[in-house]
Amino acid sequence: MSVYQPRTEAEAADLVAAAAARRERLRIVGGGTRTAIGRPAQDEATLSSGGLTGITLYEPAELVIRALAGTPLAEVEARLAAAHQMLPFEPMDHRALLGSAGEPTIGAVAAGNISGPRRITAGAARDSLIGVRFVNGRGEVVKSGGRVMKNVTGLDLVKLMAGSWGTLGFLTEVTFKVLPVPERTATLVFPGLDDGRAVEALSLGLGSPFEITGAAHWPAGIGAAQARTFLRIEGFSASIDYRLGELRRLLRRFGTPEVIEGEAATAHWRAVRDATPLAAEGDGAVWRISTAPSRGPQVTAAIARERMATWFYDWGGGLIWLRTDTAGDAGAALVRAAVARAGGHATLVRAPEAVRASVPVFEPLSEPLMRLTAGIKAAHDPAGLFNPGRMYAGV
């Protein structure tokens, strides 16, 4: 299989135009760490952004960074850290969960709309993404957005590209808004709560004025024998001291929490971000389920009644990471039925290729939404070159 790795945007456009002329289907990759997400590849060649590297603009005073799509995420984060700044949405690293190698790239973060625990306050990657350049399926270079947030009327290509998983175009450059790194971070840890009580505590914390930036629950057996419930706050040290006291009073009926800071807390939130408790459990299927926080325990209980499963909660209970065995459909019918009753959506993040070929990986769309999706795909990639069938069969 041919591998194309353009060194410039113009070269990428020429490669795509040539592929379109011969109807050559292309697998779009960055660092190759997330290629196992989605339906199995239906491509004939690979188009990699690995040759498009470098930070092309960084204005710390304006809180803006721009980089070529193949730039390693670690390079972007290191540059920001040197100025005490960060990507606010805390992007997940899938390598432990998927057992993949390579280096995550900033373009793939945009393409997958990759976010982490701080999404509850900072939004997703798409909420910080303010500019993109990409090559469409005709080999044309398209630019959308810029260095400042703007209100948008009509089709917002920046938001459209975020979460399209390389199916609409080949990203060449992305621009993000960034934020200062908080002076101090502290995490309250409540022991021994069951799922329902934990979500109640998380919801009460999130509904308070004390600016929770992380809200997760690990049931018993996830990382420790005893269940643990985590609430993170960030900011100036004096503010942290005040908010810790207020949160203890607000949540006193849930027990007396421990406070963790420093590397212990950082390691915990990294594990929440990367779903590493489930990564350590072998080769089972892993689902990413979004629902209303109050309905999270209902969803997990319904699945656990019918199938062996382990799970933990992020986003105050609104995000469930759940592991099942891979037998049959890896629990697809059961998971989707539970989610349909509660409301929400589910993505099969990890499963063997045979399972991903036989069940929907991303949340199935209604017929009107599928027609709209197919129409958008045809408008940007009329020959169906880019990651064909990765998100939905035939699209």
UniProtKB/TrEMBL annotation:
Keyword Glycosyltransferase: no
Signal sequence, renumbered to the chain: none
Positions of the FAD-binding PCMH-type domain: 1-181
Keywords: FAD, Flavoprotein
InterPro entries cross-referenced by the UniProt entry: FAD-bd_PCMH, FAD-bd_PCMH-like_sf, FAD-bd_PCMH_sub2, FAD-linked_Oxase-like_C, Oxid_FAD_bind_N
Stored Pfam families: FAD_binding_4
Organism, as annotated: Methylobacterium nodulans (strain LMG 21967 / CNCM I-2342 / ORS 2060)
Name of the molecule in the record: FAD linked oxidase domain protein
UniProt lineage: Bacteria, Pseudomonadati, Pseudomonadota, Alphaproteobacteria, Hyphomicrobiales
NCBIfam families: PRK11282.1
GO molecular function, one term: catalytic activity
